[in-house]
Design brief:
Length: 283
């Protein structure tokens, strides 16, 4: 995967009569925006695109995807750490993103027969109205500024925002309100997600089946009956089958037991090291 060349990818993308519906390029660390743009232009029928851990991708890559792949159903951009709010919002930073010439020369774009002029400004991620599965985990430069404005997909079923250290309860509440078809939501290692966010979001997540909150230490509960946030999960998210609250140091084992008894469809409650258990005991 990591050895795939830019030239070979561009050549495959432009094969006459080739119409791809699914493409997985996870971990292709040399893949850059210019090849992604050609790929998107020549394969507009793509429905599944996995570019996870393609670490050279930038905001311009998001613009190309949103512009040329309106029918995309699954998009995975996890660990693409150069993607920022500007890319999701269709507001490219001129000082950072509009100097492709050196890289174009290095990759042999200049003088080629491809439509190689880079996008100066792509479409917002909002253009992908058919999305059902979106992974933005570990895109650590993303903040509430883009998440609250762009993630408005009424048909979205699976969303991962894990390891986004800058997002807060505002993102969680906005996602819940605008993406009310969610069945799976991953928020692990988001340190600013708290009880308040869960309380605000739960009434809109009636379809939720899988919720991941590991290492969210601002989610607290010593007693479920007296704690509003997890009580809201019991009240509104009755379809929950999986709940991960591992390493949430302010949640007690008593609360875990109550959750298991009051959620009718619960199958898996991951609760390792809740209540501030000492991880060094394993050493």
């Amino acid at each position: 995967r990591t050895s795939i060349t830019q030239e070979s990818l561009r050549s495959v993308a432009q094969v006459e009569g080739l119409s791809l519906e699914e493409l997985r390029l996870r971990g292709c660390k040399e893949l850059t925006h210019y090849s992604v743009e050609v790929l998107c232009k020549h394969q507009p029928g793509l429905q599944i695109l996995d570019l996870s851990a393609c670490t050279e991708l930038t905001n311009l890559s998001v613009g190309a995807i949103a512009t040329y792949l309106p029918g995309l159903v699954v998009l995975r951009l996890g660990w693409c750490k150069e993607i920022t709010d500007w890319g999701l919002l269709d507001m490219v930073e001129p000082t950072k993103e509009s100097e492709p010439n050196k890289e174009m020369v290095r990759e042999g774009w200049v003088g080629k027969s491809y439509d190689h002029a880079p996008l100066t400004e792509g479409a917002s991620l909002l253009a992908l109205r058919s999305l059902q599965d979106l992974d933005l985990s570990a895109c650590s430069k993303l903040t509430d500024s883009s998440i609250t404005q762009v993630l408005c997909y009424p048909d979205l079923q699976r969303l991962s925002l894990s390891m986004l250290p800058e997002i807060s309860d505002d993102s969680l509440a906005s996602v819940a309100y605008h993406c009310h078809s969610l069945t799976s939501l991953e928020l692990s290692h988001c340190p600013h997600i708290s009880d308040q966010g869960i309380t605000r979001a739960a009434p809109y997540l009636a379809r939720l089946q899988h919720l991941y909150l590991s290492c969210c230490n601002c989610v607290t509960a010593v007693n479920l009956c007296s704690h509003r946030s997890l009580s809201m999960l019991v009240q509104h998210c009755k379809r929950l089958r999986t709940l991960d609250i591992s390493m949430c140091k302010h949640i007690s084992l008593t609360t875990v037991e109550l959750l298991q008894s009051q959620l009718p469809f619960i199958e898996n409650v991951h609760c390792r090291f809740v209540g501030g258990a000492d991880l060094t005991l394993l050493l």
